[in-house]
Amino acid sequence: MRNQLKAGAILSYLALFISSAISIVYTPIMLKLLGQSEYGIYSLATSAASYVGILNFGLGNAVIRYTAKYKALNDEQQCSRLYGMFFIMYGMLGSIALISGTILTLNAEQIFSRSLSIEELTTLKYLMAIMVINIAIGIGFGIFSVIILALEKFVIQKVIVIISSIISPLIVLPLLIMGYGSIAMAVVTTAVSMLSIIFNMFYCFKVLKIKIVFGRIPKGLLREITVFSSFIFLNLIIERIYWSTDQIILGIYSGSIAVSIYSIGTAFSGYFIGFSSAISNVFLTKVTGMVTREVPDKELSDLFIKVGRVQFIILSFAMSGFIVFGQPFIHLWVGSDYNTSYLIALIILVPSLISLIQSMGGVILQAKNLQKFKTILYFCIAVANVILSIIFVRYWGAVGCAIATAIAFIIGNVIIMNIYYQKKLKIEIKKFWINIMKMSLPLSGSILFAVFTKKYLLVSSWGQLLFECLLFSIVYFLVAWFLSMNEYEKQLIKAPIGKVYKKIMKSLQLGVEG
Questions:
Q1: How is the chain split among helix, strand and coil, in percent rounded to 5?
Q2: Least confident of 200-209, 383-392, 443-452, 467-476
Q3: How far apart (Å, rounded) are the C-alpha atoms in residues 160 and 215?
Q4: Over the range 458-488, which residues count as b (16 or more CB within 10 Å of their CB) and which as e?
Q5: What percentage of the chain has pLDDT greater than the value 70?
Q6: C-alpha angle with apex 432: 431 to 433, nearest 5 degrees?
Q7: How far is it, in rounded angstroms, from Cα 15 to Cα 3?
Q8: What is the DSSP secondary-structure string of 13-54?
């Protein structure tokens, strides 16, 4: 079990790295072969169809929770009955998703006819139809991938994710080169998903030897699961409203090219969120244990500050690099047509940095089961984001949607949540920000240095960009090491380097003796 957890964690980071690397390499090629307009249509179809995806109702967490419960009780029969109940529920939700998605697809022309041409609308409907089928089947048979997680077979689950992320572009690229467009991309994605589902089913029945029994379940269990999943379902709705609605609004008012530009800009948010959650998520078990032991609030506050400092070092490095080199990177990456994407990314990323370095707050809320306020607040700011986006898009297009997202983010995630962390969780927010400010001042110097030197080192190739990024990284690291990092943070770097050094020296010594 311990090996599964360790290997699963390593593979999670590997999957994050691979998906990011593939995205960076694959996106410009795809854009060149598809064109700005068709890529915008594909992004719009993805955003529209993604609303159907929330109809999984968050059952996955319920499967994991109740599987763990009955496994702990060694009640295999009840576990099999549980799977039978969930199999029916997943099937029903998959059918609902298919019906809802079909209705959405048939009404796509009425929704987007204001800004899209007849040809674009036809492509959009084909794409949405394929994506809806993919999502509906994924929901209908989603129980099998969740069972693999519930039985803590993390390695095989992550391997499937990694292989799928590699196979899709390898198949799609030749098809795009041969002239097949975005519809071929959607078909291939669906085919790969179907293969993953088939493999999950085979693994569950043949390797894990699970049984699905359709029988009676304990009275009140269905209600208990529904209440538990409803909270997660609400969070799925909020997340979808917050991160996908802007593309829909742009599709209604501004057209496919605006969607394409906005999608490139918001793509960077995913990278930052991935790096942040990869750090904070590993602390959930530790924080839960601390809450269970009823440790003093100061211990949780200290952990909040400690982890926040580490996250700030990593994320501010990425943010600083993007501020300085983001414009030339986007220009070299996807071309001058997407220069506005840099501004969109900055508008969204700068305020989100504050929330990302405080992600431990969400972990503490989860451990204390105090997520109700955060959920209600996020729903309110998601709605505010939609309202502001509809107003701003008419004046500033894609940039207006980004401004609306940033305003909602600042009010909810930054101002209100900081007050809540201090009042409810008793976290020393003032101390946290004093720490961050002290770390920010010297790091700001490295940004000014980079901006100043960039005037004399114009970036016109990938080689020049990599050289300047290397210089910036060296300056940043030296400034951070001597002026920002404390001994604990330095030890996080020195410890693994020391271990590698000792292994190398030991190997060399054995080689000499041999």
A1: 90, 0, 10
A2: 443-452
A3: 31
A4: ebeeeeebeebbeebeebbeebbeeebbeee
A5: 90
A6: 95
A7: 18
A8: HHHHHHHHHHHHHHHHHHHHHH-HHHHHHHHHHHHHHHHHHG
Backbone angles phi, psi at 456, to 5 degrees: -100, -5
- Better-predicted residue by pLDDT, 257 or 273: 257
Alpha helices for 141-255 (secondary structure H): 143-150, 154-177, 182-202, 221-253
Residues 6 or more apart whose Cβ sits within 8 Å of residue 116: 41, 124, 251, 255, 256
Taking residues 15-34, report their average pLDDT: 85
- CA dist 385 and 323 (Å) reads 24
- Tokens 């297009």 found at: 397
Give the Å distances, CA to CA, from 109 to 126, 183, 225, 253, 406. Answer: 12, 18, 38, 13, 30
Instruction: Name the token pair of 96.
Output: 């609902």
Task: Using the structure block, give the residue that is written with the tokens 């090996």.
Answer: 3
Distance CA 120, CA 496 (A): 53
The structure tokens 């920010």 sit at: 440
Structure tokens that stand for 369 in this block: 């089961």
Instruction: Determine the Cα–Cα distance for residues 40 and 28; give it in Å rounded to an integer.
Output: 13
> Which residue pairs from 373-377 have beta carbons closer than 8 angstroms and sit at least 24 positions apart in sequence?
373/420, 373/424, 374/417, 374/420, 375/231, 375/234, 375/235, 375/238, 377/412, 377/416, 377/417, 377/420
Residue type, 351: P
Rounded Cα distance between 426 and 17, Å, is 36
Report the candidate in 331, 345, 337 with the shortest Cα–Cα distance to residue 462: 331
**Which residue do the tokens 């854009």 mark?**
31
Per-residue pLDDT at 511 exceeds 70: no
Question: How buried is residue 348: exposed, middle or buried, by Cβ count under 10 Å (0-12/13-18/19+)?
Answer: buried
In this prediction, residues 258-277 reach a mean pLDDT of: 82
Q: Which amino acid is at 337?
A: D
Angle in degrees, CA 116, 117, 118, rounded to 5: 125
Structure-token match 């099999």, residue found = 80
Residue range 451-459: average pLDDT?
Answer: 69
Tokens 């589902």, residue located: 197
**What secondary structure letter does DSSP report for 12?**
H
Cα 168 to chain centroid, rounded: 19
Minimum mean pLDDT range among 99-113, 170-184, 216-230, 411-425: 216-230
**How far is CA 242 from its chain centroid?**
13
CB–CB of 43/259 below 8 Å? yes
- The radius of gyration computed from the CA coordinates of the chain, to the nearest angstrom, equals 24
